[in-house]
Design brief:
Elements (H helix, E strand, L loop, with lengths): L4 E5 L3 E9 L5 E9 L2 E8 L2 E8 L7 E3 L1 E4 L6 H13 L1 E2 L2 E9 L4 E2 L1 E8 L2 E2 L11 E7 L1 H9 L6 H13 L2 H10 L1
Parallel strand pairs: 3-10, 4-11
Antiparallel strand pairs: 1-2, 2-3, 4-5, 4-7, 5-6, 5-13, 8-12, 9-11
């Protein structure tokens, strides 16, 4: 068994290295980046899905994104998803469930947890990070939501692949049912 050793600790990433003996007897060093996970939310209100039309300090343009964000180390993804929903939309839901967990790759240890929050109710005003977020919450239909993802206007590559597969397999209505009814 090879042992990984942390060689760098950053704000978002920790870098690990491990040595591995090759078939010819030589030793090769491999690296793995470990990044904090993300918790994203697909919130619904009636037959609409809420998306974030936003800009961040690192971007000079507006784009569609999910409600959600990074999960601080030591915080449960479901708790962070609930917190992000409240902060970014001012809404809450008693009907939440995990839809899917995406893993980045074999060289990047990071997971994206996607939750559905059904029948959201406004309980407060949004409380955005004043220096780092400008978010306008927009309501879209299920078909518009799928189109945003499949045309890369709402970028999440793994989810785009899943939705295109559902379209091909004819199972998109099952996903729609899960989004709105659980």
């Amino acid at each position: 068994m090879t042992v990984k050793k942390k060689v760098f600790s950053g704000v978002l990433f920790d870098i690990y290295q491990r040595e591995q003996e090759q078939f010819d007897g030589s030793i090769k060093t491999f690296e793995l980046a470990d990044r904090v996970n993300s918790a994203l939310v697909i919130p619904t209100v009636g037959d609409q899905i809420l998306v974030a039309y936003q800009t961040q300090p690192s971007k000079d343009y507006r784009y569609y994104g999910f409600v959600g964000g990074m999960v601080p180390r030591g915080v449960e993804e479901s708790a962070q998803a609930r917190e992000e929903l409240l902060e970014e939309t001012g809404m809450s839901s008693d009907d939440r469930s995990l839809w899917k967990i995406y893993t980045a790759s074999t060289k990047l240890d990071r997971q994206t947890h996607i939750y559905v929050a059904r029948d959201c109710q406004r309980i407060a005003e949004p409380h955005l990070d004043p220096g780092g977020e400008k978010i306008e919450v927009r309501a879209v239909s299920f078909d518009e939501f799928v189109d945003l993802i499949c045309t890369d206007q709402l970028p999440l590559t793994h989810m785009r692949a899943d939705l295109l597969q559902m379209k091909f397999d004819g199972t998109l209505d099952q996903f729609r049912d899960f989004i709105f009814h659980g």
